[in-house]
Amino acid sequence: MTNVSVAAEWQLLYDRYYRKPEIYQMRWKHVDLSRNKVACASFGGPIAVIRDDSKIVQLYAESALRKLRIFNSAGLLLSETIWKHPGGRLIGMSWSDDQTLICIVQDGTIYRYNIHAELIEPNMSMGKECFEQNVVECVFWGNGVVCLTEGGQLVCISDFETMKPSKLPDVPGLTEDDMLQPTSLAVREPKYTMSGTVEVLVAVGDEIFGVEEDSVQTFRVDEPSVNESDVQDTDYGNLIGPVQKMIVSPNGKFLTLFTHDGRIVVVEMETKQIAIDYSCESALPPQQMAWCGMDTVLLYWDEDLTMVGPLGDPVHYFYDEPVILIPECDGVRILSNTSLEFLQRVPDSTESIFRIGSTSPAALLYDALDHFDRRSAKADENLRLIRSSLSEAVESCIDAAGHEFDVTRQRALLRAASYGQAFCSNFQRERVQETCRTLRVLNAVRDPDIGIPLSIRQYKLLTPVVLISRLINSNHHLLALRISEYLDMNKEVVIMHWACVKITASPSTPDAHLLEILLDKLQLCRGISYAAVATHADNCNRRKLAAMLVEHEPRSTKQVPLLLSIGEEDTALVKATESGDTDLIYLVIFHIWQKRPPLEFFAMIQGRVLARDLFVAYARCHKHEFLKDFFLSTGQIHEVAFLLWKESWDMGKNPMASKGSPLYGPRIKLIEKARNLFSQTKEHTFESKAAEEHAKLLKIQHELEVSTKQAIFVDSSINDTIRTCIVLGNNRAAIKVKTEFKVSDKRWYFLKAFALATIKDWAALEKFSKEKRPPMGFRPFVEACIDADEKAEALKYIPKLSDLVERGEAYARIGMAKEAADAAAQANDGGELLERFRKTFSQNAIFDTLKIPFQGAS
């Protein structure tokens, strides 16, 4: 009897059964769909209702001001707002994929609302063409819209995320001949077209045009006539005649046409072949057309809903009130003033179980459970009959349970599956558990207070993640949290959204008390972003609460920027320094640098060693003047002196700093300033003296460059300056530098000897060697000659070397082995030098003759 009662509700269309269970009794009151514009979201989404301003309606104890009301699918009011927008009549209204309500008025202005009837700023526009010509019709699809203007212009927005309107090519006849007006529009979504852009189908006169982004093509339907001789070369598309209404199938493969003579023609989009051609009882166009899944087409006239399939007689449903058809992926929701129904094809698994007279394994298994409950032996008999197909029967019962909206029937089918599973060893046990989990979720969201009547196929297409997102957007946080826990999903999104909503909804709650409430829930989820919640609190002008929340954020990378945004620079600097992250510290430094006065900024970073050092490192490269102010404010005068000294060196790199350039004077002044600052501290006496001598040297070098007209002195060392003066023959200047900087005689002899050797003035070198006894002997003269590769000149001075080791080494350097050996033999160094020479001159026999005496002496 159960099977009979279930199947009695079905309708047969050819060989397919359809059912239309009632999902909800609508909870709204005084809502007449015929007086309102209605927009229903797919996947069991919300319903937007607003009084239709294109109709003259009688007001019943209601305000003349129109209200935009948003209900859930059970008719429970979620939110409402007064509609008071300019721009003319409301032309079109639809929900986007993310459940944003899109409203388009006559002048092309787009108003957007969320599910709480809150206007989303800013308002957008369909463009200049729509503003000038007015919008007369809108066709929406998932996340886009096409508008038709009074001038026959098509304007498209392909993605509501970007909101970029684009003008489509002109349709032949619309703009040229004002007498022609499009009779119908339909849209083929971008994901189903070859070009990847939206295709707009426009019926004009006897023609149908396919309009894409950069092309317009005529859409023709080809089918041979019954009498081919009569219309042998005639295009069948012309025989269809004017099209009064058309829609595209959900998968974009079929186009449904309602012609002027009352025929329903379904055409395959690619092959242009006709799949359905049915003559309706009325030639008047239906008020609504919709696909029921991919199987049949629904047509609605007043009080009559007709379902037409490829074969067989149509099925009629009669209503005494207006209805709205809401296409879904697996059926159509039928919304009326009093109820919401779901028309769908009966799933194969359900049909196999409940069809009258069914003897399928699933039907026998379901019947076996009934016998088992009545303790009848017939249960065992049924199981024996289907033992070979028991796995198939169990699967069918599970699948049928998933497609049911009635909870009692779900339980019965799942009990039958569990009963059969006990006798089926090779069946996956998790299959029943998985279906039970899914159904618990679906039954929870189908509750009228939630009002999301998803089928199991819709749920799988929508995904649990999106479902939870829609629940939290509707402020059903508790249910979203329980589902997340039940499905082992991340709870962070739910808790964070709840926290933000709680802050918004609690303007009068004290910060400390609200913080306690928030932490109680936020601590349920590890790793949750307190910074994101604190940001929302700051946006709600709860800065103190934001500061209290951000204290609990464990990630410095999120904590520090937020502290800066709410004005907690001191805390931000502490947290950034504690993290040790140099990027974060620099972020805080630059922020405070821009916001605070210099002295206040200096005081903040002075106590933070890492922050101070990073600031100094940066300022040394880019902000010298500011760094000087910092050092002066902190009493580090010597650091200012070092900066001045460095600036003088940097200035010296400028090629204009020589040849009497005006830059010469500032360099000297900088060094003198540095000397004065160094002199103020006892610890930097050496630096003060060095700076003084540096300034003195620069002056002398500058004078030398001016007198010689050669830019070769400035920034050279004292040694180089003396050497250059001697090379240029300016002995007086060299002696002056020697005297000014108290150059020792030893260094003087070295410098002059090498300078004279450089210019190969051997006579002057010899004269210089005879002026008085050199303080270091004749070694400087020997080395200068050897470096200049003048052996003959070196021989003048080598015999005068008093140190035998030095004499032997000098002879060895110019290749005189015998003299080197004699000197080494006479040297009192224990034969070390002689042994070294033997290795150096290994081919020379002279050292072998000295070997025996040397060994004897040792």
Automatic annotation (TrEMBL):
It is found in: Vacuole membrane. Its main location: membrane. Residues 8-429 form the Vps16 N-terminal domain. InterPro entries: VPS16, Vps16_C, Vps16_C_sf, Vps16_N, WD40_repeat_dom_sf. Gene3D superfamilies: Vps16, C-terminal region (1.10.150.780). Residues 528-835 form the Vps16 C-terminal domain. Keywords: Membrane, Vacuole. It is a peripheral membrane protein. The keyword Membrane applies. It comes from the Eukaryota. Belongs to the VPS16 family. Required for vacuole biogenesis and vacuole enlargment in dividing and expanding cells. Involved in the docking or fusion of prevacuolar vesicles. PANTHER family: VACUOLAR PROTEIN SORTING VPS16, VACUOLAR PROTEIN SORTING-ASSOCIATED PROTEIN 16 HOMOLOG. This is Protein VACUOLELESS1. It comes from Camelina sativa (False flax).
